[in-house]
Amino acid sequence: MPETPEQSPARTVNRRSVLGTIGAATVGTAVLSGRAAASSDYEQINIVDAGADNTGSESITPVLDDVLGNNRKIYFPPGEYYVDEGIRFTDFTKLWLVGDDATIVPAPADEFDGPHYIFKLGTYYAPGDWLRIGDLTFDFRADNTGLRAIQAQVNDCYIHDVDFVGEHDAGTHGPMLVDIIDPDKIAAVDRVSMPDGGAWTEDTDRDGNPDVRWGPTGFIVSPYHKGKLWVRDCEIGGFPDNGLYDSGGDGRVVVRGGRFENSNSANIRLDGDESTIQDATVVVDNNRERDTNQRGIRLDGGSNCWVDNCEIVLEEPNGHAITVMPDCSSAKIENTSITLNSSNESNDAIKLSSGSGDVTIDEVDIEMNCPGQAIEVKEGDGDVLIEETTITGDASGATGGRHAIRCERDGTRLYGNTIKQPGPGYRRTLTLTANDCVVANGSYESTHHPIINDGDDNVISKITARSYDGYEGIKLVSGSINLYWSTIYEGVRGDYDGYGNEFPS
């Protein structure tokens, strides 16, 4: 379906255009010009009045070809609208697509004509200027259905109250892509729901166009995104290749609220300066056969990234709850609760990858009931602060790491933390393999030695350390510590410098 760039706005002319021109006379001025809205800068068109079938019996594509135009508000009355070919419309000024109890039903993948999208609105090189889509349902409940329903590359938009029902099982691109091309614009996607997720491509009939290697992403923001996009109160179910995925670029994505569950790779994956996730719920409670790494949140890159007031519950953990990747130069994780329930696999609640930058973890509650670290700090290029954080749970130290916190980054500071690890397998609270760290004003309790030191010139001050099984509160494997004004049950194994300490039994 070739694009005609000499037209402004540009649009696709497809095999149905001949049929469309036949119907144009009946549409006429009574439907187009005669239905102008109160504002004089756009026309309002009732698509049923324009000739579209709303019983789901006939494709509406010919009528869409006719009525789609610049500065037009296309209204979908109640009913079902069958589509077997997509619409491409670019370089427009204003466009509305709004429904009222309206459901769009795509043809199965082997009957859909051309590339598998319903609405391709704008491109990165010919974006639409302003777009609104709202109050529509896309029905993927039939077998072998699922395609990119909305691909919007525009300068500004408001997309709201859009529901995708049924599993996306055609093996093609996921339901939605939104890019804001103008770096100075702010747009929003509110209350979009796709709870039924998508199938792995290998589990589909593989006749989608294009064939996606792993499987669909639920909601993707591409590297062409340059502006700011709010994503508010959305619901995304289990997709094979990320739930919400900002795949890089100069733009910003802000997630506010919503529920994200059971997607592979990551349920929320962001990349960009000031990327933000607030008030969101992330859940993993279902592992399909091919779901092997269902992370909660993944921060791929950017500076001043922020995770605030979120709840992450991994009932069936097979990936980390939050991962800060090497290209993330700074991030803050605060006021967040993380639960990892029982599993045979080792996973981290928070993993700071090698090479990551400055990270603050503040007032985070972590419950660890599976093997692994609650917080793992790898060597990196920035400072790490962990403060006022609570770690509980019955995690074992037998496999996947014995330590609630394992710190390999020099200069890390740990202030005011409370850690209780009563699990078996020599479970410990803190291991320092780094140098020049500071541990102050906290409580460290575990089955085995609560604190293991394997680094040089670490300072421990005003803490309590106690082993439930009577081991020394601190053990020096190697290196050195300076210990001040602390209560260390059963004493210290190894030599140290310091004063003002108590060693009760």
TrEMBL record:
UniProt xrefs under InterPro entries: Beta_helix (IPR039448), Pectin_lyas_fold (IPR012334), Pectin_lyase_fold/virulence (IPR011050), RHGA/B-epi-like_pectate_lyase (IPR024535), TAT_signal (IPR006311)
GO molecular function annotation: lyase activity
Rhamnogalacturonase A/B/Epimerase-like pectate lyase domain sequence ranges: 45-101
Segments forming domain Right handed beta helix: 231-391
Superkingdom to which the source organism belongs: Archaea
Keywords: Lyase
Annotated Pfam families: Beta_helix (PF13229), Pect-lyase_RHGA_epim (PF12708)
Name used for this protein in its record: Pectate lyase superfamily protein
Organism name: Halogranum amylolyticum
